[in-house]
Structures are given as structure tokens and as C-alpha cells.
Amino acid sequence: MTEKSSWVKLLEEGDAAGLWEKLYCLVVHHNAMKSFFASHGPSRHWTRDGYLDITQDLFVRLLEKNRWQFYLDANYTDGNIEHELQHLEIPNLISLELRKRHPEAFRIARRVSDILKTSPEFKYYGSAPGRSQASGRLVSRIYGLAPWLSSTTMKEESELPDLIKTVSFRMRETRRSGRGNSSQIIISNKALCQLMVDIFNATESLMDVRTVRLLALSKIAIEDSRFISIDDQIAPQRTGECQPYRIEVVDKRPTPEAVLLDGEVARELEFFADTLLGKLKQGVRNKPKRFRKLVRVVWHCYFDPVARSQGEIAGLIGVSDSLVCHYRKLFDSYVMKIDLPVEQWVILNRSLETKLASIMSEIGPDQVGRDTKPGNRISPPCDRPMVRSARAGARN
Question: How far does Cα 333 stand from its chain's mean position?
Fold first, then answer.
């Protein structure tokens, strides 16, 4: 390391670009980056953008905490600055990001480590002969059950998932909440400790902390789902080219067969509406004047957007309210004889509304006739149901 590129020199000169470049080199070669990018899934697997994002977040974090100035004021050497960045700042930032992305799995993994270190059921075998290298990082430390002899060996990691198949899956604890009532317990410490004991008994092997975490998490209901874009890019492990996710979204549009069947149903109901109007015309003995009055009554009672009472309709058309009631019952009697599925009633109602609107346009605007006499009874307002409601009311 030359004097020009030293941390202290860059801080004294205020060279932000140089500090960023050195920080980027530390981030790229840090051991914690492997687990961090693995947690992001295949969409950001070992990409340069990921390193740039972490470096930028760390640089801003150090600026916000005023750590750069603290290093100068405290007379930190290059070794002290690099040691703090590698062993404190970068791991803390990675832990924070992992906690945000996988909150439940992160909490359970930390609890597994704490139980291994504090519970009397487990023993640390890192100082045993041939295992002195395990005394470094926490995830590399080797643990086993306390009653085991020091001669107990470690089995191949690939064999362990098959050995724990007999260990029962733990149900999720949903009745109790964690600290601050913002999260669920998932599993109590006592149950988690028993699960780890069962795993050790099933494998009969010493394991490092990382392996114990993975095996324990495989037997617990963890919910760390996240939303991703369908158009997100996926980078294969062996090639650097990005390919889109091959996800086929369910097409909710009707199939050609459904479109054809719906068209046939619409045509049949169109003919059905014409038949209904023909029967109504026969009900008034094919007299045009009476049929026009019938159409007006049906339109104002069931299809007109403006809600009116039978008395108001009678005054609008120029007939008595008793005649309005008679024509309405006549229309209802024909409708109640119709037997159609629920979904076809909507189509029939729409078709009938179109035909009645066409007839009303041919008839012209309503001519107000005589006013209703004071002695005439005013019927309650029409509830303006669809055609189907008249038939439903008859069944009731």
C-alpha cells in the first residue's frame, strides 16, 4: 500500500473518489458478500451492480455517522481503519440487509447460535484435536451434544439432510407475539433447543454452526416471501448473460370456444326477447295503442333510470294508476314463466332493454294526460328491479 493510496492520506486530502474505490475493493473481497448475494436469489447473483449498491450504502452510512472524521480525530492508522471496516462496518451492514430481506430466518439463525453457546445440552468442540481451525468465525465453530465423547467425528454434509428425515417438522406458534407485538414467536426457545437435540441425535455427528442453522430452519415454518417483478432478469450460474424469468401468466381472456358459445347464447336470448315482446303484444290483443302503453309502463317501472311511483307513471303516460298496475302485473306474469340460468338473465335483461329503448324512441316523448284525481290511490314507488326479480318474487 503506497502512501498516496493509504486511508489516512485519502482522509486528510478529502479524496471522496479514492475512499470510494478503496471501500469498493474491501466490499468485493469480503467473506460476508457470498451469503448476502445468495439471499438475493438468482436475479442479482454475483453482479457488479450489487457490489456497487453495497459500497454506496456503506459509504453513505459512514458519512452519516461521521466515521471518516472520527478516524482522523482519533488518529487511526491504516490498519485500524481497515480492521474496523472489515470486522464491524461491512458485517453490520450485511446483517442489517439480511434482517430486512429475511427477518424470520435471520432471527431463528441468531437464536440457534445463542442456544448452542448458552444451553447446557450442547458442547463446543472447536478446541478438540484436529479442529483448532473452528475457533475462528462463529459459523465455522463446531458443536455437538454435551454427553458425546471427544472422539465423535463429523459426517459428510451431503448426508445430513437424509439423516434428519425422521425428525418431525415443528408447527408454527401463532398464538404468541414477540418483542413489541410486531412479530410472531414462530417457535419457543425450549422447542427450538429440543429440535436441535433431535437433529444431533438423528445425525450422530458434530456440525458447525452454519450447518445446524440450515438443518434447523428446514424443520421450521418460516415465512419470508417477497414480491419480484415478472420481468426481472435471471443470471445463470455458468454464464454471465441475463435471461428473463420464463413465467407464463394465466390468461383470463375467454377461449375461442367460450367466445363462440357466448355468441350463440346472446343470439338465442335476442330471439327470446323478441318472443317475449310478441307474447306481450298478444296479451293486449295485438292492439298497437294498448301495446305502446304497455311498453311505456314496463320501461318506466323497470328500465328508466329515473325512479317514479306508479302514480307518477300514470300521470306521465296519461292513464289511471290501476291500468299501470294491471300492465305491470301482465308483464310480471310472462316473466315469471321464464326459466333461465342466473347468468343468462343479465343478457336477456340487456337485450330487452335495448329493444324497449328502440320502441320508446319510435313512440316519442311521453305526453302528459289527465292528472290523477285526489281520490285515486297512489301506489308505492317502483323498486325498479331487473327482469329476473319479478320471477324471483313469484317463487317467494
Answer: 50
Rounded Cα distance, 136 and 144, in Å = 17
Residue pair 105/35 in contact (Cβ under 8 Å)? The answer is no
Residue 168 phi, psi dihedral angles, 5° rounding: -70, 150
Q: Specify which residues 96 forms β-bridges with.
A: none
**What is the C-alpha separation between 281 and 291, in angstroms, rounded?**
6
Contact, 87 vs 123, CB < 8 A? no
DSSP letter assigned to residue 216:
H
Which backbone phi and psi does 233 adopt, to 5 degrees? -95, 145
Cβ contacts of 18-27, under 8 Å, gap ≥ 24:
19/59, 19/68, 20/55, 20/59, 23/55, 23/58, 23/59, 23/85, 24/51, 24/52, 24/55, 26/82, 26/85, 26/86, 26/90, 27/51, 27/54, 27/55, 27/58, 27/90
Only one residue has cell 454435551, namely: 146
207-208 vs 142-145, strand pairing mode = antiparallel
- In a 13 Å sphere around the CA of 338, the CA atoms on its Cβ side amount to 26
CA-CA distance, 217 to 199, in Å (whole number)?
11
- Span 226-262, pLDDT tens digits: 666 655 555 454 555 555 555 566 778 888 888 888 8
The CB-side HSE value for 299 (13 A sphere, CA atoms) comes to 21
Instruction: Kindly report the pTM of this predicted structure.
Output: 0.49
Residue 364 pLDDT? 77
Domain boundaries defined on the chain: 7-101, 105-217, 257-395
Segment 193-198 long-range contacts (CB within 8 Å, at least 24 positions apart): 193/115, 193/119, 193/121, 195/167, 195/170, 195/219, 195/220, 196/112, 196/115, 196/116, 196/121, 196/122, 197/121, 197/145, 198/167, 198/168
**What tens digit of pLDDT does each residue of 165-212 get?**
999 998 887 776 655 555 677 888 899 999 999 999 999 999 999 899
DSSP strands (E only) in the chain: 122-124, 142-145, 173-177, 184-186, 207-208, 233-234, 243-244
Distance of CA 15 to the CA centre of its chain: 45
Over the range 384-394, which residues count as b (16 or more CB within 10 Å of their CB) and which as e? eebbbbbbeee
3 state SS of 123: strand
The x, y and z cell numbers of residue 278, run together, are 310478441
